[in-house]
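Records of this kind hold a single protein each, on a pair of labelled lines. Below, a sample record shows both lines together.
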Amino acid sequence: MQSSPPSLGTENQHPFQVDSRREIIALMRGLKESNQFISMMISGGAEIFITTVIDVDDTNNLLVIDCAPGQLANQRMIEAPRVYFEGLLDKISIQFSSSSIQNTSIDGRPALQLAIPTSLIRLQRREYYRINTPLSNPIRCTIPLDEDTGIESVQISLVDISCGGIALLDDRKILGNEIGTIYENCKIDLPATGMINVSLQIRSTQDLILLNGKSNRRLGCQFINLSSAVLASIQRYIMKLERERNAKLAGRI
């Protein structure tokens, strides 16, 4: 299931629309400084590529982003009548679009540029606070598989975690993408918190093309019948990540 492109009109009729240039620039810089992955979508969401913000040039009103993998993919972005973007900054979904993407370079490196959006959607869509897990030391979830697969279990890296569920990156696409599938007795080892045992139900899937050209699959999974003890462990781990992130932003680590 693919994400629908955000709907951004010319009039401020969306209750979550942001038109303040100062606030928009701050959000773009937040995406850059946190090195967040951003989905860029064309053809009604049929083609999705992953990028990051490289530079926010408010003097020249330019947003510089990483290229898509391959010259043809970049050309499709440039020729598309509109490109839609969606990223996650803390627990807020940031959505915007552009009708004019151009080739550029930064520090000798090919990139794409577009005008800083004049409006965007800042949207809290999740019931629970969700935080990204570390990229440098990925957290892995061990998921038991059916006997007929010939594989006893698989370990898949977490992208983020909340008290309601997790997002996984299934780069080998072992789990499939059937919405509603439930996996019992999954184990997640949370650093400094301990091993937890959970049941997961697939609630959303999205096939992605990474900057290196490889494909990946992002699975949004909901916890099923979570016990109070496991919920407390997840809350402690989220608080630990939040403290570490705040300390990093404050320059203490």
User: Anything to note?
Assistant: The chain has two domains: 17-123, 131-249. Residues 131-249 form a domain with the Thrombin, subunit H fold (CATH 2.40.10.220). The CA atoms of residues 173 and 217 lie 6 Å apart.
